[in-house]
């Protein structure tokens, strides 16, 4: 058992050292997918899969900190997830709440919610608001927690905000339409002021976005990994970063 472990650690170290620091992504979006399937394969309750996935999030952020990744957006709860069976949703929200507590206790990350706050239970919304305030001035990885998030809902909310602002300023719809730019829309997104993700990783073998960062990922690179999220290893992450570093980014050209 020791030889395979030693060989694995040696390979992992070599892989990490081979990564060019100037070609690493600054902002990574992660679709933490596969918790339910992991639990089913393990023969454990679904909540055990969600908890294993939550533990992996803390581990993953340690890897990001080690590699000086500046920003991470974690897709933790979509608007579609809010329609799950009541008992599973209750368990999932409990795991999310405890994960937020653990993020606050690390003293190393800055947390920001991206999502529709009005869709969340009041206690979770309050916890998120408090965590944003507590961690606002911290150094370390900036962690966007996409909770109650949907890409279409985000764009809809952005347009609603722009329309409301125009009405307050006394502008007509025609005046808004004639001056509206992509910069205006970006300024009204949940991630306003942030750089778009350079790399989006999805685990569990699925190869679709499922509404994750619909606007922001227009020019992102994508990496799909077969591993279920609780089984996602540091070497899998390093391989994703190596793949990203080897790509020639064209930004639509």
Structure description:
By secondary structure, the protein is of the alpha/beta class. The protein has a domain at 24-150 and 197-244: Undecaprenyl pyrophosphate synthetase (3-Layer(aba) Sandwich). It is 49% helix and 13% strand. It has helices at 2-18, 35-42, 46-66, 86-106, 122-135, 151-168, 173-179, 182-186, 234-246; strands at 27-31, 71-78, 110-114, 142-149, 199-202, 221-224. The protein has a six-stranded parallel sheet, with helices on both faces. Helix 1 packs parallel to helix 9 (234-246) and helix 4 (86-106) runs parallel beside helix 5.
Structure keywords:
253 residues, alpha/beta, Undecaprenyl pyrophosphate synthetase, 9 helices, 6 strands, 13% strand, globular, UPP_synth-like_CS, EC 2.5.1.-
CATH superfamily of the domain at 24-150 and 197-244: Decaprenyl diphosphate synthase-like
The CATH class name of the domain at 24-150 and 197-244 reads Alpha Beta
Strand content: 5-15%
Average pLDDT level: 95
What is the architecture of the domain at 24-150 and 197-244 at the second tier of CATH?
Answer: 3-Layer(aba) Sandwich
* Silhouette: globular
Order of helices and strands: HEHHEHEHEHHHEEH
Unreliably modeled segments: none
């Amino acid at each position: 058992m020791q030889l395979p472990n030693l060989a694995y650690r040696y390979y992992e170290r070599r892989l990490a050292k081979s990564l060019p620091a100037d070609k690493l992504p600054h902002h990574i979006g992660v679709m933490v997918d596969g918790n339910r399937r992991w639990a089913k394969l393990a023969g454990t309750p679904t909540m055990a899969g969600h908890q294993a996935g939550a533990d992996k999030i803390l581990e993953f952020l340690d890897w990001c900190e080690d590699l000086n990744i500046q920003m991470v957006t974690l897709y933790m709860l979509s608007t579609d997830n809010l329609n799950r069976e009541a008992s599973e949703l209750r368990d999932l929200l409990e795991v999310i709440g405890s994960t937020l507590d653990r993020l606050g206790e690390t003293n190393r990350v800055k947390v920001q919610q991206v999502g529709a706050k009005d869709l969340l239970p009041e206690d979770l919304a309050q916890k998120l608001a408090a965590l944003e305030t507590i961690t606002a001035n911290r150094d370390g990885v900036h962690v966007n927690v996409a909770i109650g998030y949907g890409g279409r809902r985000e764009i809809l909310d952005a347009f609603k905000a722009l329309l409301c602002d125009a009405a307050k300023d006394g502008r007509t719809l025609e005046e808004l339409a004639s001056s509206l730019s992509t910069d205006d829309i970006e300024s009204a997104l949940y991630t306003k002021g942030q750089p778009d993700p350079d790399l989006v990783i999805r685990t569990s073998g699925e190869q679709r976005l499922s509404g994750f960062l619909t606007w922001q990922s227009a020019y992102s690179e994508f990496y799909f990994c077969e591993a279920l999220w609780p089984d996602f290893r540091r070497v899998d992450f390093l391989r994703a970063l190596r793949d990203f570093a080897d790509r020639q980014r064209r930004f639509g050209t």
